[in-house]
Design a protein that fits this description.
Layout (H helix, E strand, L loop, with lengths): L2 E5 L8 E2 H7 L6 H9 L3 E3 L2 E2 L6 E2 L4 E4 L2 E5 L1
Parallel strand pairs: 1-7
Antiparallel strand pairs: 2-5, 3-4, 3-6, 6-7
Helix pairs in contact: 1-2
């Protein structure tokens, strides 16, 4: 069963960094855990494996980690 979520960017923000999103959404417990998930190839952005920890996520991007899917709005 998939877990679909949305993340609303702050009105004055154009993006959020991937590691920060994973921590904020509690997909990762710590920054180190977020880094490990990314380095191990478990994180996908728009269905493509993502290894950049500071990838800038913008409106419309979809981040997937295992059964969790987060759409940036």
């Amino acid at each position: 069963m998939s877990n679909k979520r949305t993340f609303d960017l702050k009105p004055n923000s154009e993006f959020i960094e991937l590691m920060k999103l994973l921590k904020f959404e509690q997909v990762a417990q710590t920054g180190g855990h977020a880094k490990m998930l990314i380095e191990e190839g478990l994180v996908y952005v728009n269905k493509e494996q993502e290894f950049r920890k500071r990838r800038k996520l913008k409106k419309g991007d979809i981040v997937t980690v295992e059964d969790i899917s987060i759409e940036i709005q």
